[in-house]
Specification:
CATH topology of the domain at 9-181: Rossmann fold
Strand order of the largest sheet: 11-12-13-14-15
Number of strands: 26
Distance between the termini: 65 Å
CATH class of the domain at 9-181: Alpha Beta
Oligomer: single chain
Number of helices: 15
Strand content: 25-35%
Helix content: 25-40%
Structural class: alpha/beta
């Protein structure tokens, strides 16, 4: 294969890894050399005798695996912008992404094509089957500079319709470099990947960091404990990254094993060099329970689609439960009051603002939203935090997690963490609801543990021994499960609707 492209850092580094195995998917595997060859042929097929896609948006619909990585790299090497789609999204949600990003082509495979074929025909979008994209020749591929747009990921849309977050090749490389440096990624690392691949957690933190270093990724179409735990017990993995809900499921699943089966699984987790939790707040109780079960102290970090990862507990040093650590390499962080004043002291909450090469370029085709999201070059995250003894602690989203009650700003995350210590509560979500006396009052949706019942008065009595008066729950909803998005994060607007009269 001969190409004369100027590649991105991620792809040029892959050329150094040669015949090392890059991805294992079931009984299939692909080396770095084969991944480069396959993605070049996909790029040639996308170009179809053109010199450059010139940042055309190309959607992709795959789970984690060889096809996903091949398609992503192929789109990039053809000069296109990759737009990963959520496999679990509804057709209206997919339509919003396709039309907002002005997608011209969609690349997928036979098992997923039927879901989008009719919609794409209506929208005039060409659907390409990856199995048929195997160009016999690989002509010169376009020059990819760091400032070229590479990917559009869509926000979770907690307060408005999801927006398309545009990252450049240079921005993605900055995100990878920061994590490789902070978390000590190595060529001999091996990691499972089972997270949704329309989210930065799976795309950058796992797949891209691993492939940058020459490490090995074993992919799964979704989280399946029965498929993943045998690999853990066999010491197949050196790293593990997941969201809090998965750690909750793992705790339940491991405790349900008989002692002979439990021991090698716990030892497998204990032998990993690093385990990370992110994408949602990790309750302190889960942090401590996991450490007691496996001996592993989870590393919690903070990031978002627009900025990549920004804060992290240290690889070496104290990993503090309930905190997200300090700024990562190449990342600048400041806290700012509602009045726009930069906070210099500890123990004073403010909005997290971020600056650095990893920050996104723009919201696609939405200059007003882009302009409102920046102040003097700093991105306004909309999240509130406080610094305590040198570590940042997230208080929550200003829009959904900060409750203004009785003149105080309460963190819903802190209240949830306290309530999870109740012996009858399996899961809970706290929101603020309008209240004539307090401004906003604390409302709690709970999932009870099996065999337990919960009533508001008994919960208030229990909480009264642990919380000040304005933090006590005023409303209670007992539910069989909490509404969550694809990454397992509770969707607070849906929780709040439970209390609307």
């Amino acid at each position: 294969m001969q190409t004369t492209e100027h590649t991105t850092d991620l792809i040029s580094r892959a050329q150094e890894h040669g015949d090392r195995i890059a991805i294992v998917e079931g009984d299939r595997q692909i080396s770095y050399r084969e991944l480069l060859d396959r993605s070049a042929r996909i790029a040639a097929g996308l170009l179809d005798n053109r010199a450059d896609l010139d940042e055309q948006r190309v959607a992709m619909l795959f789970p984690a695996g060889i096809d996903y990585a091949s398609a992503q790299w192929g789109i990039w090497r053809a000069g296109g912008i990759a737009v990963p789609l959520n496999l679990g999204a509804t057709l209206p949600e997919i339509e919003h992404v396709l039309t907002t990003a002005q997608v011209s082509n969609l690349v997928t495979a036979a098992p997923y094509r039927d879901k989008v074929q009719t919609l794409c025909a209506q929208l005039g979008i060409r659907v390409l089957d990856l199995a048929e994209m195997n160009s016999p020749s690989t002509p010169a591929l376009p020059r990819l500079t760091a400032d070229r747009r590479a990917m559009i990921l869509f926000t979770s849309g907690t307060t408005s319709k999801p927006k398309g977050v545009v990252s450049t090749h240079g921005g993605i490389a900055a995100q990878i470099r920061s994590l490789v440096n902070a978390w000590g990624w190595r060529q001999d690392d091996r990691i499972p990947l089972f997270l949704p691949m329309h989210h930065i957690h799976g795309i950058v933190n796992i797949q891209s960091c691993a492939l940058w270093c020459g490490a090995r990724v074993r992919t799964f179409p979704a989280f399946d404990m029965q498929s993943i735990l045998p690999g853990v017990a066999a010491r197949e993995f050196t790293l593990f990254m997941a969201v809090p809900t998965i750690y909750v499921k793992l705790i339940e699943g491991i405790n349900a094993l008989d002692p002979d089966a439990r021991k090698p699984v716990c030892e497998g987790f204990a032998g990993m060099r690093l385990m990370v939790s992110g994408s949602a707040a990790l309750p302190v109780e889960i942090h401590r329970t996991w450490e007691g079960l496996t001996g592993q102290t989870l590393l919690e970090r903070y990031g978002m689609t627009e900025i990549g990862m920004a804060l992290s507990n240290p690889l070496q040093g104290e990993r503090r439960p309930g905190a997200v650590g300090m700024p990562l390499p190449e990342v600048e962080i400041r806290l700012v009051t509602e009045q726009g004043e930069v906070i210099q002291a500890e123990d004073s909450p403010g909005e997290i603002q971020v600056r650095g090469p990893a920050v996104f370029k723009e919201y696609w085709n939405d200059p007003n939203a882009t302009a409102k999201s920046f102040v003097d070059g700093w991105f306004r995250t909309g999240d509130m935090a406080v610094i305590e003894h040198g570590y940042f602690r997230i208080m929550g989203r200003l829009s959904v997690d900060i409750i203004k009650s009785g003149g105080y700003k309460l963190s819903a995350l802190e209240i949830e963490d306290a309530l999870l210590r109740h012996p009858g509560i399996a899961e809970c979500a706290v929101v603020g609801v309008p209240d004539d006396t307090w401004g906003e009052a604390v409302a709690v949706a709970v999932v009870p543990k099996a065999g337990h019942s919960l009533e508001l008065e008994s919960l208030r009595e229990w909480a009264g021994e642990r919380m000040s008066r304005y933090k006590l729950p005023k409303l209670l909803q007992v539910v069989p499960k909490l509404p969550r998005n694809a990454m397992g994060k509770v969707t607070k607007p849906e929780v709040r609707r439970l209390f609307e009269i």
